Automatic annotation (TrEMBL):
Protein species of origin: Cirrhinus mrigala (Mrigala)
Keyword Aminoacyl-tRNA synthetase: no
Family: Belongs to the histone deacetylase family. HD type 2 subfamily.
Enzyme class, first EC level, given as a word: hydrolase
UniProt protein name: histone deacetylase
Amino acid sequence: MLDWDRDSDEWEKQLQRELLLIQRQQQIQKQLLISEFQKQHQNLLRQHQAQLEEHIK
């Protein structure tokens, strides 16, 4: 029974490590998505500003 408990503890620790890794990866992906969204948003604002300026001419 002791071996089973030890294996169970190791299994749980491994799952915890994997969960932590997945959470870190998700955080990085979230930051990348936010960064890409902000970049595209700025591009759209610049395009819109250029269209407005062209329309005013």
